[in-house]
Amino acid sequence: MNSDADYSYAEPEPAYAPSSPSIQLPFALLTCGVAMIMIMQTQASFWQKSALQEGKAQMIDAIAKREPLVKQSAELKAKLNAMVIDLLILGKTDEDAKAIIAKHGIQQNQSSSAAEPAAGDAAPAPAK
Asked: pTM value?
């Protein structure tokens, strides 16, 4: 038996040794770059989603906190409108009410059908 083995554990010498880097290297780097961009965009979209959810929750809270104020302002507006109408009615007979109406330029709006001028009429004068 021959003590020389027909095989060797040493790396064989390549028959072709490339003198330039492989063409696969640029494509591998490009793929890694695209993957990193996609990861960053995905992460940014998750941050935006969580920010939108937090903003929605804050907006709902703000609306809930402002509802009593809106209701209060609507009640106040109704009371003021009633007071002005009473003042206008009182202004027909009371001189002090007439003076207040004249001083502040209070007027009662006409209904929408009466407010629209006819086709041949001149435009109404603007209120001061």
From this structure: 0.44
Question: pLDDT tens across 60-69, in order?
Answer: 999 999 999 9
- Could you tell me the residue range of the domain that residue 47 belongs to? 25-108
Tell whether 14 is covered by a domain: no
Centre a 10 Å sphere on the Cβ of residue 101 and count the other Cβ atoms it contains: 19
DSSP assignment of 44-76: HHHHHHHHHHHHHHHHHHHHHHHHHHHHHHHHH
In a domain? residue 128: no
* Three-class SS of the chain: CCCCCCCCCCCCCCCCCCCCCCCHHHHHHHHHHHHHHHHHHHHHHHHHHHHHHHHHHHHHHHHHHHHHHHHHHHHHHHHHHHHHHHHHHHCCCCHHHHHHHHHHCCCCCCCHHHHCCCCCCCCCCCCC
Give residue-wise pLDDT tens across range 70-104: 999 999 999 999 999 999 999 888 888 889 888 98
